[in-house]
Amino acid sequence: MLKRIYDSLASLTFGLWLLAGVCLAMAVGSFVASERSAINEVPLFVWLRQAPPRETWWLWLTLAILVLLVINTVLCSIDSLRAKWQRGSFLMRIAPQVMHLGFLLIVLAHLLSASGSLKESLQVREGMTIGFPDGSRVEIAELAATYGKMGMPTDMSATLRYAEGGTARSATIRPNHPLFYQGVGIYLKDVALVPYHAGLLEIHKEPGGGAALAGALLFTVANLVLLAKRRGREPK
Amino acid sequence: MKWLLFTATGITLFGGFRRPLLATGILLELAYLAIRGMDLGRLPLIGPHDTLVFFSTSIGIMALPFLFFPSLRDAELFPWLTGFTVAFFALLSLPFPAFAMPMPPVLNTLWFELHVALAFFAYALFAIGALLGMLFLKDGHRHLLDLQYKAGLVGYSFFSASMVSGGIWGYYAWGTYWLWTPKELWTSILWLFYTLYLHLRLKGSSWERAVAWGGIVGFAITLFTYLGVSILMKSSHSF
Description:
Number of strands of chain A: 8
Radius of gyration of chain B: 18 Å
Shape of chain B: globular
Number of domains of chain B: 2
Number of helices of chain B: 8
Structural class of chain B: mainly alpha
Largest sheet of chain A: 4 strands, antiparallel
Distance between the termini of chain A: 33 Å
Largest sheet of chain B: none
Strand order of the largest sheet of chain A: 1-8-7-6
Distance between the termini of chain B: 25 Å
Strand content of chain B: under 5%
Helix content of chain B: over 70%
Largest interface: A-B, 56 and 50 residues
Structural class of chain A: alpha+beta
Oligomer: heterodimer
Order of helices and strands of chain B: HHHHHHHH
Number of helices of chain A: 6
Number of domains of chain A: 2
């Protein structure tokens, strides 16, 4: 009985059905999800608890299938390594399993972010300060923006002053260049120069970021190894 | 400079009977894209005109090695299908104006350019995979399926790298490597579908027709991810 369950959970056919199931659940979800949903404003697990079931059912279904897909991936990798351990080149044996590991790390990253992420929006003016739980403060020293010929912003920046380890520091943030401070990222989203210099900042905490990057790097490196090793040979 | 694009489109549309001629059309389209990029001072990757031309050119460039593969020398339909596909997306771009607006600050990063360019290279290889799948279903030659697999595998690698660079860009631009929007969902669907496609091949030779269909369905999902989501749904990728 246990052997039958293990074989089913570790089977390639089951994995293929699960992949098709995740695709289908997410495809339906893309049409069901409301444009006004707060799904990106709060940690995912908070949203799942608070939003009505008619908005969340597809994501619960996706998560359930993903749990099975994770189990299937782990068991398939173990079976594959056991079956092929003595055959072929080491890199060819290990590369697909490292890609699986990368995928699993990315799932873990989403799990960490879904339970512990943070997003806060702040409207600020020059001279204002932002307080942090440990009592430290970050001052918005200067807000600046430049505009192109068509009146569209071509650059914007905020100069921040803060203390770190007893030393006064200053940093300039702009789109794509946040400041990482006290475990969170401070992002500049918008700047207005009239009637007074004001800006929109966002504070983000993304606990899954490290695991996602590690997973992505592992996946990419193993993918490149697989491509290099398969170059010029007929696919099997 | 649109005359260059018109000329390139004409040659790719009708040049399928001579592969070097088709290649010339593709290179002319690449020249148009390069001139447009030099005018803008960046990769032309914003707005329907530029992205459709980039997509069309990517299909042509990615198809070049396939056009001259010895095993595809006898596949007379392949250059015609490639030419039609390249021309089709180039023609789609023509009604849209070629904007010369400055790059919004949030897009002004190498991660964005890498993310979009890699995605289009992947889309292009998925298109070629679909064409090879159609030829396999028509002729049944096994080497067509092998080439489809290669296109799919390299395309998948480009697409994975595009998702990685997109995640890094998102982290620096928005504070998160992931947003729950239709575009991200369909991007994940596309990635998961090609994961399924690559694993489907492990089922053996009795699944060959399913694999060929997988490459075709994959390209349909690609088109929905690229065009359908932008037209039908609101997304963080609408700039």
